[in-house]
Design brief:
Two copies of one chain form a homodimer.
Chain A lengths: L16 H14 L12 H8 L3 H13 L3 E4 L3 E4 L11 H19 L3 H16 L1
Antiparallel strand pairs in A: 1-2
Chain A binds a DNA duplex (30 and 30 nucleotides) through helix 3.
Chain lengths: 130, 130
DNA sequence: GTTGTTTGTATACATACAATGTACAAATGT
DNA sequence: ACATTTGTACATTGTATGTATACAAACAAC
C-alpha cells in the first residue's frame, strides 16, 4: 500500500501545514499520479514521515474527501475515488487570472527574471496540453 | 494624491485581508501601475474604502515597506520608492514551479478546462514579454 | 511659538485558527 | 472474545488576525 510520493512541506511557511498537504496531494490527484483505487498512507504514517501530528494529516484528508477526491473509512484508510470535473463557479476564471497575476508579481518582486518566468509558464503550458 | 486603483478584497476568503491588500498592491507595483513617487491613500482612507480597520491597512503597508516598495512617514503618508530587483533566493524558481503547479491543479479541480487554463497562461506570458 | 489637524505607530484586547494530546469508535483478523 | 489498526471527536494551547484606543510626529494657521 501507499506508494508515497514525496510531499514537500515547509513548517516555517505562512501557509498552514494541512493546506500544504492538501495542495501537494491535489496536484498529484489532478495530474493522475494518484489513480482511483490507490490507498494513501495512513494519517499516522504520513504524519510521522512529515514530522507533524496525525490529526493535521487527518484534517487534510478530510478536506480532500470533501472535495470528492478521497473516500475515508476507519480501518481501511484513505482511498482515491473516481471523480468527474464539476461545473466551475462563474468567477473561477477571473479568480485564476488574479491569482496567477499575483503569483507572478510575487516572484518578480523576489528577483526572478521575466525571462525565466516566461520560460516556466511555457513549460507548464506545454505540459498541460500534452 | 492617491489615484486609488480598485483593490478587490474578499472578507470571507481564507487568505487574511492584510495579505490580500499586499498581494493586490504588489501586483500594481511590479507592473508599474504605481510609479515611484506616487502617494498611496492614507491607511484610514483605504481602510474605509475597503471596509476594514485602518490598522489592517497599516499592517499591509508595513509589509510592503519591509519589502522595499514603500516609504512610510507620519503626516506624509505612504510613498512608492525606487526599488531595484534583489538577488533571487536559490530556491525561488523551484518554489515558483511548485506554486504554479498547485494553482493550476486547484483550478482544474474546480472544473476549469485545460483549454481555458492554457489560454490564460499564454495570455499572461504574452503580456509579460510585451 | 502655540494650537489643531493629519498622518503613521504602539499596545492591549477579543476572537478565530492551527497544531497537538488524548480518548474513543469502528472494522478486521486471530 | 480480544487485540490491533485504522479514522474521529474533543479539549487544550499557542499564534495569527482584526479591532479599539491612545500616542507621537510633522506640518499649517494664526
Amino acid at each position: 500500500m501507499s506508494a508515497p510520493p514525496k510531499l514537500v512541506i515547509d513548517p516555517h511557511s505562512n501557509v498552514p501545514v494541512y493546506r500544504q498537504v492538501v495542495d501537494n496531494l491535489r496536484s498529484l490527484l489532478v495530474e493522475g499520479a494518484l489513480q482511483p483505487g490507490t490507498t494513501l498512507p495512513t494519517v499516522r504514517e504520513l504524519g510521522l514521515e512529515l514530522g507533524v501530528h496525525f490529526n493535521t494529516i487527518a484534517e487534510a484528508y478530510r478536506l480532500l474527501a470533501s472535495e470528492g477526491w478521497l473516500d475515508l473509512k476507519r480501518r481501511r484508510g484513505a482511498v482515491v475515488t473516481e471523480r468527474s470535473a464539476p461545473q466551475p463557479p462563474p468567477d473561477a476564471l477571473a479568480n485564476f487570472r488574479r491569482n496567477l497575476r499575483q503569483l507572478i508579481a510575487q516572484v518578480r518582486a523576489e528577483g526572478l527574471s521575466v525571462g525565466s518566468i516566461a520560460h516556466e509558464l511555457d513549460r507548464l503550458n506545454r505540459e498541460l496540453s500534452a
